[in-house]
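lol forgot to send this yesterday, sorry. struct tokens for the thing we talked abt
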């Protein structure tokens, strides 16, 4: 999978972000995207081939693997990375709309098309809410699909066509567990950063509106 588009998207959004937003971009790029590409993808690369059961009944191993791993951890992680980065496109599109509007009217309509204020502020806040919501959805999805944030060494399977309860062994469970905890930790960190940035922007805008009203009253 090529991650060039996602990298370019994050780099583009970085220009319009606040200080907290830039930290979020750094966390996503360095601690999630690079870790995924450099290490995590290889750990789950042969997870199906390395899943072994103590029986050679045709179809049993495949059915058990599908039951305990309905969706691959690594594919779900990739989908999460893509989905939580996608709302940032709203900001990029809004800035592009402002720039095209200025070109169409052939005059300066904004002090700075990339400045987060007015309609762009609303778009930015919506993107933060969507990113936070998607992070939470994927954390719940991980928890529900795998019965918690854990990878057991041994699972017992009694699903047909297995003739009885068989023992199945997961490869490199400790290594996978470490990366799973890392995934959850970085996801929680991103949620905290998104909520912090959301609170900061709302607080900043509220103070700005209050000062404007106060000045008008005095005038």
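and heres what i got for the seq, position by position
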């Amino acid at each position: 999978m090529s991650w060039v588009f996602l990298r370019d998207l994050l780099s583009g959004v970085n220009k319009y972000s606040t200080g907290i937003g830039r930290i979020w971009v750094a966390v996503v790029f360095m601690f999630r995207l690079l870790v995924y590409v450099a290490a995590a993808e290889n750990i789950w690369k042969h997870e199906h081939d390395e899943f072994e059961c103590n029986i050679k009944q045709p179809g049993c191993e495949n059915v058990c693997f599908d039951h305990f791993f309905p969706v691959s951890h690594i594919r779900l992680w990739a989908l999460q990375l893509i989905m939580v980065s996608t709302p940032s496109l709203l900001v990029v599109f809004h800035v592009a709309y402002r720039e095209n509007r200025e070109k169409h009217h052939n005059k300066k309509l904004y002090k700075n098309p990339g400045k987060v204020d007015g309609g762009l502020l609303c778009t930015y806040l919506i993107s933060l809410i969507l990113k936070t919501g998607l992070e939470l959805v994927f954390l719940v999805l991980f928890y529900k699909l795998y019965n918690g944030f854990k990878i057991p060494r041994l699972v017992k399977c009694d699903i047909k066509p297995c003739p009885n309860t068989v023992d199945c062994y997961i490869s490199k469970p400790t290594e996978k567990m470490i990366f799973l905890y890392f995934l959850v930790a970085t996801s929680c960190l991103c949620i905290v950063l998104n909520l912090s940035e959301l609170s900061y922007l709302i607080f900043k805008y509220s103070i700005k509106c209050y000062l404007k009203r106060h000045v008008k009253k005095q005038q």
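The CA atoms of residues 151 and 177 lie 6 Å apart. anyway ping me if u want another try
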